[in-house]
Fold this protein.
Amino acid sequence: MEVLRPIKTNWRTQAFGEDKACIDSQGKVTTRVSAVCPPNTQSLYKSLGMVGHSGEDWSTYHKEPLFFSVLAPTAWYAKHEVDKHGGIGVDIISTRPFLNGKYVKFRFHHLQGTVLYDGQRVKQGQLLGFCNNTGLSSGDHLHWSMKIVNERGRTLNKNNGYYGAVDFSIYFKNEFILNELGISDARVRNMYRIYLRVVDKWLKIFRKK
């Protein structure tokens, strides 16, 4: 398996296991200053019962396109996920076991929304959605993580201190997936235009009802 960068912006802000985020009593998320949480805040992850950060955080611009970037000998399907804090995400789940005989899912989170439906098959380089700042977040960024799951896509080992997430850095190659696949920026812009047209038509139909 090889995991490439799913966004063009190349700026990682937090790695797996780190503890850079803080939260106050009102649910506002901030970052540590000189490795210390600001006054009247505490570690976000410890407040959630976690040991540390459960994936990778990469800074994005607002509504930056997000693409599926895992190269592996299996097919994948999508399942939407919205957490209790309003964070929007999508899980991309393997259709069969392939990593040491285990099923795998990748979660992409804090999104504006997705362009997929539940159960849709997903290919490498496919547009998933657009990055944002939904849920427990201090600014526009992409959080993505990997979990080992069963055949129904349910997370195993949820009590490992990271909600079942595992460090996938040994599989990571810091290359933008579309560059690796030879897909041009012009095609990306065209994908975005098509998405906006579809959303506009859907809204017109919805408003007529």
